[in-house]
């Protein structure tokens, strides 16, 4: 979620993932948190799965931006 709207994410365990997904304890809703560059290595060492915004990898989105 970004700003209360649904956002698609790709699951990546490579260097491109920079968002962590957490579950809000009260509402049980998933919340995406963008990590700062200095936080990413620690999150990976802790075994956290990181995600990237789908629009960064989507070939349809990439081709429409350049058209």
Describe the structure.
- It is flat, with a radius of gyration of 13 Å.
- It has 67 residues and is an alpha+beta fold.
- The protein has helices spanning 40-45, 59-65; strands at 9-12, 19-23, 30-34, 50-53.
- The model has no long low-confidence stretch (mean pLDDT 80).
- A two-stranded antiparallel sheet has the order 1-4.
- It has two helices and four strands; from the N terminus they run E-E-E-H-E-H.
Question: Which structural traits does this protein have?
Answer:
single chain, 67 residues, alpha+beta, two-stranded antiparallel ribbon, two-stranded antiparallel sheet, 2 helices, 19% helix, flat
Termini separation (Å)?
A: 28 Å
Reading side by side through the largest sheet, how are the strands ordered? 1-4
> How much strand content do the residues show?
25-35%
pLDDT under 50 segments (min length 5)? none
| SSE class | alpha+beta
Radius of gyration, CA atoms, in whole angstroms:
13 Å
Average residue pLDDT = 80
| 3D shape | flat
Instruction: Report the biggest beta sheet as strand number plus sense, adding barrel if it closes.
Output: 2 strands, antiparallel
- What is the helical fraction, as a range of percent? 10-25%
What's the quaternary structure here? single chain
Number of strands: 4
Q: Order of helices and strands, N to C?
A: EEEHEH
């Amino acid at each position: 979620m970004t700003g209360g709207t649904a956002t698609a994410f790709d699951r990546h365990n490579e260097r491109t993932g920079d968002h962590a997904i957490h579950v809000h304890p009260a509402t049980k809703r998933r919340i995406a948190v963008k990590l700062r560059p200095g936080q990413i290595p620690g999150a990976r060492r802790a075994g956290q799965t990181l995600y990237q915004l789908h629009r960064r990898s989507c070939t349809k989105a990439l081709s429409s931006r350049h058209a």
